[in-house]
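Q: what does this look like with manganese (II) ion bound?
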Amino acid sequence: MLNKNIETFIGCGAEFDEAGIVIYGAPFDSTTSYRPGARFGSSAIRHESYGIETYSPYQDRDLEDISVFDSGDVEMCFGDAEKALAALEERAKAIADAGKLPLMLGGEHLVTLAPVRVLSERFPDMHIIHFDAHADLREDYLGAPLSHACVIRRCHDILGDGRIHQFGIRSGERSEFRFGTEHTDFHPLSLAGLSETVSELSERNVPVYLTVDLDVLDPSEFPGTGTPEAGGVSFTELRDALEFVCRNCRVVGADLVELAPTLDSSGISTALACKLTREVLLALL
Ligand code: MN
Ligand code: MN
């Protein structure tokens, strides 16, 4: 018998009903402040995932042993961020309503606001763990409140003080760093302090949304991103951190954003993003 050519992330061919995690793509980069291209991130991750193994020697787990459904990319409106977010919210809500964990592949970072809106309604005590080179705490960017440079500030509008935990931040305006110090659990320059944050959140069994802006990585390992920022963490550090968060916290949703595959013609950045996606999927189940 012949099968239809349907491309999913490798090892994620489960049916919707049996799946615990549902992948969805957010091919959007219309508020990107510097170099665009993140709209191609999710499809590149899916396509290039066939270059990696389903088995993780780090975790001794295999994607063949778990059930993940890949719901494909959401069709998104370019030029109207609020309309684009509405389409993503609809997908995130359909996944969460079915009792499944939504895992989003970006796209630029603004897309995170959609699942955060949906999941914070369902889990009013939700916290966010945020890995990024950038604080993303601007009130607006050139007058636009809906920009990838403001996404964590928009999340703060919803969640308020003390419920956003930021790691690896090494770029932003002075006012963003002040805002972070006063209003979020702010860990600039490295991932130091993560184990304390995770043990506190896991003890309280707090629902956690995990958002990973891949530019938290050093550009020497991950150049394929719109706003590369020297001085980042290594793949190994980030992989360990994500496994630690996923294994110990009550993660109710997650995303990996800001891969811009065409900005790295070597393909190494996309291969890294594929591997990290596999590691997150395996650590979540
Ligand atoms: Mn970001
Ligand atoms: Mn960033």
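The pocket of manganese (II) ion (ligand 2) is lined by residues 132-134, 213, 215, 227, 258 (CB under 6 Å). The CA atoms of residues 135 and 198 lie 20 Å apart.
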